[in-house]
Amino acid sequence: MKNVVLIGASGFVGTAILNELLNRGHKVTTIVRDAKKMTVSNQNLTIVEADVTDTDALKEAGKGKDAVISAYNPGWKDPHIYEDTLKNYPLIVESAKQAGVKRLLIVGGAGTLFYAPGKMVMDADDVPAQLLPGIKSLGEFYLNTLRKEKDIDWIFLSPAANMTPGKRTAKFRIGKDDLVVDANGDSNISVEDFAVAMVDELEQEKHHKERFTIGY
């Protein structure tokens, strides 16, 4: 059993990760902006209402924990998502380090994966304009900040190009820097299976200071 902090537990991906963690018997302390959005009740669950900008709260929650899992997202409708992502993600990294946490597992984006030689997803012509600020900011955080991080054992788990509600199959393929696609060239993963991959990594610790991706 691991004892972890989960940031963003009330969001789309965070909810799936929380369910997977609790179903496997791990102890979870969640950091959420609005505790009223938390509908899960479990003896292994502690809910802390705090914003990610509250670094003291993050550090306090992280003390003595095995890992921090971050599903932080300012919100796709946040007009300042680009700026908020680039400002707040380094705070999460720094808080985890100052709390003495050994591992930081981050819900990444598919934006920095390659769909063709030398061509990243976030530069493709068919990316919806309204999603670009969020996709690019998370990509830039990974490329310019996280990859240079030496003081904490981090992973950046990128989903397939399309992550949707679906079924938990626990059957998927793992890739490195290229988008994982099926025989038809499509790149898909259910959010439930993304959560499986994240908690597998928490338990098995197969990747260190690197990005990897999954898909069917």
State the helical fraction: 25-40%
Topology as a string of helices (H) and strands (E): EHEEHEHEEEHEEEEHE
Total strand segments? 12
Side-by-side strand order of the widest sheet: 3-2-1-4-5-8-12-10
Instruction: Name the poorly predicted regions.
Output: none
Which SSEs are present, and which pair or pack?
Blueprint: E1 3-7, H1 12-23, E2 27-32, E3 45-49, H2 55-62, E4 67-70, H3 81-98, E5 103-107, E6 114-116, E7 119-120, H4 132-144, E8 153-158, E9 162-164, E10 173-175, E11 188-190, H5 191-204, E12 210-215
Parallel strand pairs: 1-2, 1-4, 2-3, 4-5, 5-8, 8-12, 9-11
Antiparallel strand pairs: 6-7, 10-12
Helix pairs in contact: 1-5, 2-3, 3-4
What can you see in these coordinates?
The protein is α/β, with parallel strands linked by helices. 30% of the residues lie in helices and 24% in strands. The protein has helices at residues 12-23, 55-62, 81-98, 132-144, 191-204, and strands at residues 3-7, 27-32, 45-49, 67-70, 103-107, 114-116, 119-120, 153-158, 162-164, 173-175, 188-190, 210-215. Strand 6 (114-116) and strand 7 form a beta hairpin. The longest helix is centred in the middle third of the chain and has 18 residues, at 81-98.
In short:
This protein is of the alpha/beta class.
Question: What descriptors fit this protein?
Answer:
two-stranded antiparallel ribbon; 216 residues; alpha/beta; 12 strands; 5 helices; 24% strand
